[in-house]
Amino acid sequence: MKNDFIVNIIHRPELSPEYAEKVAGKGVQDESLGIFIFQQDTAHKYGLKTTIQITYASLFSEVIVELAKLHHQRYGDEIALSLLGLPCKQFKEKYKTDDFCIWMFDEKTKREIVDDVFSMFFDRFGFYPESTSSYFLDAYTINYIKENYPSVKCAVATCWEEGPKAYHTCNNSWYTFMDGGPWNPWIPSKVNSHCPASSKEDDSGIVAIPHLSRDLIACFDGNGSNFGTHPQNVLRGMIYYKDGDEYEYPYLYNLIDQYRHLGKYNDGYSYNMMFVGPGWLNKLGRWEAPYELLAKSYDDGMKYYGKLKEKGCLTDMTMSEFADFYRLRHPDYNTAECALWKDILYGSDKQYFWYADPFLRTCLDFNQGGAMIDLRPYAARLPQKIGIGTDNVYDASYPYLIQANYRAGFFTHYAGAGTVKSCKVRYHGEEADLCLCRTMASFENTNEGVRITANPVTVVLDGLEIVIQSVFTFVRGSGELITTRKILNDLHGEKVEIEEYFTGGFGTTEYQADMSKLVLGVDHEKMNYSYLGRSVSAENAKTAYVEIPDIETLIEAGGEGCTATVQEGIAFSPVYHINLSKTLSEGGLTTWLRLKKAN
């Protein structure tokens, strides 16, 4: 199958660039303009067209307006409109604020800003844009833009895996969280822009792309700002070396190629983007990197894309062109985005599998036997509002049920306190958790849905070898995950217990909100969460469940012939447990997990 590898090159001229927000004077403006021209010239030199995201400040510049028109005519570049770059002198004087993030304003101000910027754009160019951008765009803003400026079909709508990690790596000063969205393009829901649309009625009318294409292992585990196909991110992460007088950054090219590789898991389609504001290339340098290295890395990155295009391995598109392409390749709203991602930074055998559809986003870690280390309940379609005047002034993140970095995973100081979904095997009083069994996995697209099969692992309990293979099937269009733990060897009649378990929490940061609204149950018996460590259990149960009203989510789980148990935590360990167990000497344990909107 031919791999359609699509790349968006996006530039935004900023006459009041972020890095120099406290600096005034024409010199900064001239430098920013010069950097923008350098970026444009570099892309064109290697035969690549761009999307020019015009900022608010740039709309006051005749030079940039005319340059954009020229590049549109000469190179086919798209002239688009960015909702970044607001904090210029004109904006501050008009709106009497130092705020600059569109999603953090109250709804009335959001509308005023959108109308202001779109009207100015029309005055300068004689048409409305087909694309726009921001670090994050909430559903309210997207819906307002689409209703009033229907030409818009594409938007940069979130920055993948920001959240508390960005806050901490910015010295606890980055008061805006936007964690929990897709890492790859998606069609946002009208209800919540993090969630992929589930139907035509739920379709916001645009195709969304992430702010950067990031390393789906290194970014999740560490500071995402160091790992992206934005060359200056790679320099900030110090992932390069000097060979004589030359600097080399093979990781950047490996990362681009890793995105190319995703076509294997997405019916031959893969995507990458490069979105670099001029502040990253300023003449003073950034971090330990001088301007010469910043510029060279940018040129080398563009050169690599250009070579791929020459070989027929890449198609450069504008954002609006990509939106049309994406809809053609995704006629079914239930089409999932998949990424079986390997470690390209350290070269280990570590593997993550990322999956996103309208019902859920999740990550399986095969360095921990296929343990689930992230889970977001998109099925809840949480209608959260963001900005001044709401309950979420700065926290735009979509809540998790499992998040191994914010709420720990298997490896915790206090046993059993971490959020994770995995499997335990017991025999003669001994126990092993598959989280301790490193493995690798393979991908298959079936009629039922996406199937991930882990390589077999062997656990030894009281001298008995037990060979287990884990198979995960994401059932298309259902929000259901079927997990099978197969026993592959002859146990000679010995019986072992296999327990599939789910330890969960909910929230957007490290700290757990009040859990007293939760309801836990098995079949017809239930209890309200009271921090007492109580449990409800039943043999041959049909369904175990946890209902979380705060995030409008219902978790259901079951398996044929299983003993099902739900258990509440204590105040020191505010989690909940769903356990499904079965004793057997052959075959295996098959369980299912479903996410639904509560009520």
Please, could you describe this protein's structure?
With 599 residues, the protein is an alpha+beta fold. Helices cover 22% and strands 30% of the residues. The protein contains 11 helices and 31 strands. Strands 18, 19, 20, 21, 22, 24, 25, 27, 28 and 31 form a 10-stranded antiparallel sheet that branches. Strands 1, 2, 3, 4, 5, 6, 9 and 10 form an 8-stranded parallel sheet that branches. Strands 17-16-23-30-29-26 form a 6-stranded antiparallel sheet, with no helix packed on it. Strand 5, helix 6 and strand 6 form a beta-alpha-beta unit. Helix 4 crosses helix 5. The longest helix has 20 residues. It starts with a strand and ends with a strand. The model has no long low-confidence stretch (mean pLDDT 94).
Which descriptor suits the 3D outline? Answer: globular
Strand content: 25-35%
Radius of gyration: 25 Å
Q: What level of helicity do the residues show?
A: 10-25%
Structural class: alpha+beta
Number of strands: 31
User: How many separate helices?
Assistant: 11
What's the helix and strand layout?
Elements: E1 4-11, H1 26-45, E2 51-54, H2 62-75, E3 78-82, H3 89-95, H4 107-125, E4 131-133, H5 139-148, E5 154-158, H6 163-169, E6 207-210, H7 218-221, H8 231-236, E7 241-243, E8 246-248, H9 250-261, E9 269-276, H10 291-310, E10 315-317, H11 319-329, E11 337-342, E12 351-356, E13 361-365, E14 371-376, E15 402-403, E16 420-427, E17 430-433, E18 441-445, E19 449-454, E20 457-461, E21 464-475, E22 480-487, E23 496-504, E24 519-522, E25 525-528, E26 535-538, E27 544-548, E28 553-558, E29 563-570, E30 573-584, E31 588-597
Parallel strand pairs: 1-2, 1-9, 1-10, 2-3, 3-4, 4-5, 5-6
Antiparallel strand pairs: 7-8, 11-12, 12-13, 13-14, 14-15, 16-17, 16-23, 18-19, 19-21, 20-21, 21-22, 22-31, 23-30, 24-25, 24-27, 26-29, 27-28, 28-31, 29-30
Helix pairs in contact: 4-5
